[in-house]
Amino acid sequence: MPTVAPLELDNHCIAVAWLNDIPHFALADGVVHRLDNGHKWTEVHDGLLAACTDEKNASLITGGEDGRVAKISFEGSVETLAEIGRKWVTSVAAGPQGAVGFAVGRNAYVRFADGKQREFQHPRSVEDVAFAPKGMRLAVARYNGATLHFPATDGKPTELEWSGAHTSITFSPDGKFLVSTMQENALHGWKLADGKHMRMAGYPAKVKSFSWSTKGKWLATSGAPGAVIWPFQAKDGPMGKAPLELGTRGDTMVTQVCCHPTEDIAAIGYADGMILAGRFADQKEVLLRRQGKGAITAIAWDDEGRRLAFGTETGESGVIDIAG
After folding, report:
1. What is the pLDDT of residues 141-163, one digit of tens each?
2. Which part of the chain is the Anaphase-promoting complex subunit 4-like WD40 domain (predicted)?
3. Cβ atoms of residues 322 and 304 within 8 Å
4. What is the mean pLDDT of residues 97-111?
5. The overall pTM is greater than 0.85
6. What is the secondary structure of 50-80 as a DSSP string?
7. What percent of the chain is helix, strand and coil (3-state, nearest 5)?
8. Between vectors from CA 172 to CA 317 and to CA 56, what angle results, nearest 5°?
9. What is the average pLDDT value for the chain, to the nearest integer?
10. Which CA distances in Å does 20 have to 26, 132, 150, 302, 313?
């Protein structure tokens, strides 16, 4: 049976991550906690809004209400990468060769490893940023579509249009597809080779979490009473194909999904604090954590896929050891 080592924190958990095999918990109050031979923490921001790991999973990149972008090492040292004044940094992304992308209001920025920075202005607010898996290409989620920038050159950006507010964005691991979540209860996608549209609708709620499977053949999503998992094996992605549904539990909504690092398995977190693991091949499910005090807001596997760190909106956090 899986065992849970709890960590009682006192604020909304924005993100969890494994750095150097140490679980880290980034909270909305700007403090990053870690379990490293005991409970330790580092004050990083005056209010934290976004966090992600760097491309090597060696540090945590964060953006805050204090207008700063920071990098936190696994030992807790903090480096300020950018300061934008009294503005909120609402999204961060880690790119190739040490590049970092972030969003502030209507602007997207890319900071290169040498400290140089480029700014990309947009007519409406930038909702999210993401880097392509290969090459220096930055996607911006915006109102009525997405924009692809090429920060290392002065090339003209590529505009991908689709009506509505696009709130977060992700490239498929092979770089062939770009998928956004929308303000309405849907996903939208583009096949980048020819600009073909992919409409993924029918959700009862907004999709706020997505995760690609280890080889990019599946995209797991929240926004329903079970995890909705779209197939991306075909050249046109999920078009004309029904998604898998894993872990459906009555009216209890899935709030977080995270695919396993080596197997076609997803960890599924719910609004009532429960966590299940579901296998794509046969839809077999295993209970990892019973209900708690608040919704699951962050989950992350360690590199070996043997432990799962989680955080909730009430601060209840911890590590689940799958082997028990």
Report:
1. 999 999 999 999 988 999 999 99
2. 261-322
3. no
4. 97
5. yes
6. EEEE-TTSSEEEEEETTSEEEEEETTS-EEE
7. 0, 55, 45
8. 55
9. 96
10. 16, 24, 31, 9, 25
Among left, alpha and beta (phi > 0; psi -120 to 50; other), residue 37 is left
C-alpha distances in Å from residue 206, one per residue of 110, 115, 272:
28, 36, 17
Tokens representing 3 are 């065992």
β-pair partners for 221: 210, 228
pLDDT tens digits, 54-84: 988 999 999 999 999 999 999 999 999 999 9
Beta-carbon count within 10 A of 249 CB: 16
Contact 19, 58 (CB under 8 A): yes
Using CA atoms, how far apart are residues 207 and 20, in angstroms rounded to an integer? 30
The average pLDDT across 310-319 equals: 98
SS3 track for 177-199: EEEEEECCCCEEEEECCCCEEEE
Provide CB contacts within 8 A for 106, sequence distance 6+.
121, 122, 123, 124, 125, 126
Nearest to 181 by CA among 204, 214, 207, 199: 207
Q: Which residues contact 253 (CB under 8 A, 6 or more apart)?
A: 204, 205, 222, 223, 224, 225, 270, 271
Point out which residues pair with 222 in neighbouring strands.
none
**Which residues, in sequence order, are bridge partners of residue 3?**
321
